[in-house]
């Protein structure tokens, strides 16, 4: 896991000392994505300059980057969870391995199967591969966009980086998000994954629900087992809700050093439930009680690292920021979380009232990379912690998207199939605990929203950007101003999901 950056010269413009210096600046701005001792592992040719800040997780002693093999050079940010099966297949084809890293598996897979290899990967990744033979390159990003990637292209160069902040003051460059499940080779920008197009196989009539529950349970356990396949201790961000509790309970079956971490206001529901469960189960548990003063002080860092101005993302990130800070302070480099379950399984109230909940599942899942998953990535990597998302395991997510909605919401109970699948793992008070959004569960409630609205009085955004983006509330204007203070580019559009807003409690509500 790491941060990557690259500058690729186009036409007759070779990489010179100025561009090489620019690469170092790009990497420095995302130094938090790696270990201090692994900063700025770079390679520079006359056609391109690229580098990485490596957060050493797999084969920490030998897994240096870049990996070079048969005229190809790979810079990679990610984690594959089907590494073992891919390695076995590649060994059978005659490929040799010098390390135990998934980075080497990625490059050998590209040598074996070309761009078709991306469809074989199950994991989270963003990468660039350079070819000496034709001075070409290919860039790719995982199907759900769990790992971030941005690029900018002019007539002179292509710039690539893990975060917006890397682009800094790159003259003439306006970074855009590289779409999940795509590859680009300088001429073709092609989608390689159709998982997000998956539709329910049936309306649920005449199905064997027991079989569906058993399959879901099996895939869920496989996903968690693969995501905790590490010799490092594993942290779990634990709210006491069904998603994170299921991940925590399953993780303890497949790893012998799993620790829970919970953050919230004193007396909050999340802390109370999480403490009760961990005490009953004898789980090592670290809790941090925060105050509103703590949250206010963290806002500049949250916006700086988060790279967004949407109020709901910023508010949720304030809790995540403290959770990952706590995880880092206890020396953890690997964490897992329960994100993605609500989107895949219709966990929010708005799914009950939407005229087409199946389409809403697809829409929300397609946008995870710029909402909840962006929050998870930025807040965890701000503290040099790699966070894995087992609910977005490729096999589990594909199966979940194909489920009839009747097993997702049943008699007003959201995520019915998940609750059935993990009923043997968890006590009833968690299995049947209703969905509680992060602001309510953590105790933050509307305090940050009220603070932001109050601070927005008199704020005018230069150029009327807030008006062009359709921002309608003072708290949105406040966070946009904070975003622009950090030098981020004026966005073309807002991150907000079209057609949805937040009511006075901070909940999603459908706008017809």
From TrEMBL:
Pathway terms, separated by semicolons: Amino-acid biosynthesis
Identify the CDD domains for this entry. Answer: Asn_synthase_B_C, AsnB
State the top-level EC class: ligase
Q: Which Pfam family, giving just one, matches this sequence?
A: Asn_synthase
Reaction(s) catalysed by this chain, per the record, are:
L-aspartate + L-glutamine + ATP + H2O = L-asparagine + L-glutamate + AMP + diphosphate + H(+)
Q: Does the keyword Magnesium apply?
A: no
Q: Which UniProt keywords apply?
A: Amino-acid biosynthesis, Asparagine biosynthesis, ATP-binding, Glutamine amidotransferase, Ligase, Nucleotide-binding
State the source organism's domain of life: Bacteria
The protein's name in its UniProt record: asparagine synthase (glutamine-hydrolyzing)
Species lineage: Bacteria, Bacillati, Actinomycetota, Actinomycetes, Kitasatosporales
């Amino acid at each position: 896991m790491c941060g990557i950056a690259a500058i690729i010269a186009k036409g007759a413009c070779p990489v010179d000392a100025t561009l090489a210096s620019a690469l170092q600046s790009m990497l420095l701005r995302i130094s938090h994505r790696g270990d201090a001792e692994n900063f700025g592992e770079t390679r520079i040719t006359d056609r391109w300059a690229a580098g990485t800040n490596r957060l050493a997780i797999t084969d920490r002693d030998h897994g240096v980057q870049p990996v070079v093999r048969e005229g190809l050079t790979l810079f990679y940010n990610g984690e594959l969870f089907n590494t073992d099966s891919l390695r076995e297949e590649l060994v059978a084809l005659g490929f040799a391995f010098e390390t135990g890293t998934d980075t080497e598996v990625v490059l050998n897979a590209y040598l074996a199967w070309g761009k078709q290899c991306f469809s074989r990967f199950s994991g989270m990744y963003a990468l660039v591969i350079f070819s000496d033979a034709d001075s070409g390159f290919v860039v790719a990003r995982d199907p759900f966009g769990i790992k971030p990637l941005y690029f900018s292209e002019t007539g002179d160069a292509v710039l690539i980086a893990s975060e917006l902040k890397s682009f800094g003051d790159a003259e003439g460059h306006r970074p855009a998000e590289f779409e999940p499940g795509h590859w680009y080779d300088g001429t073709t920008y092609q989608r390689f994954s159709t998982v997000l197009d998956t539709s329910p196989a049936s309306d649920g009539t005449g199905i064997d629900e027991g079989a569906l529950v058993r399959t879901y349970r099996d895939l869920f356990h496989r996903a968690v087992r693969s995501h905790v396949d590490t010799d490092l201790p594993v942290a779990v961000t634990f709210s006491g809700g069904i998603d994170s509790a299921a991940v925590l309970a399953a993780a303890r079956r497949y790893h012998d050093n799993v620790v829970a971490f919970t953050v919230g206001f004193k007396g909050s529901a999340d802390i109370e439930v999480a403490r009760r469960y961990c005490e009953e189960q004898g789980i090592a548990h670290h809790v941090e009680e925060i105050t509103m003063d703590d949250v206010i002080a963290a806002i500049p860092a949250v916006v700086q690292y988060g790279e967004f101005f949407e109020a709901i993302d910023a508010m949720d990130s304030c809790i995540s920021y403290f959770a990952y800070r706590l995880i880092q302070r206890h020396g953890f480099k690997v964490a897992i979380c329960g994100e993605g379950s609500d989107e895949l399984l219709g966990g929010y109230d708005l799914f009950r009232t939407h005229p087409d909940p199946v389409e809403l599942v697809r829409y929300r899942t397609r946008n995870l990379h710029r909402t909840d998953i962006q929050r998870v990535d930025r807040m965890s990597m701000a503290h040099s912690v790699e966070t894995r998302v087992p609910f977005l395991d490729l096999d589990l997510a594909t199966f979940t998207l194909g489920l009839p909605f009747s097993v997702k919401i049943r008699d007003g109970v959201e995520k019915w199939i998940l609750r059935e699948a993990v009923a043997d793992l968890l006590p009833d008070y968690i299995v049947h605990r209703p969905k509680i959004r992060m602001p309510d569960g953590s105790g933050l409630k509307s305090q940050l929203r009220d603070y932001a609205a109050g601070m927005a009085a008199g704020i005018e955004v230069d150029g009327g950007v807030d008006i062009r983006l359709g921002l309608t509330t003072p708290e949105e204007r406040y966070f946009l101003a904070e975003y622009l203070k950090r030098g981020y580019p004026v966005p073309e559009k807002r991150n907000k999901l079209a057609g949805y807003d937040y009511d006075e409690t901070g909940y999603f509500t459908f706008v017809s």
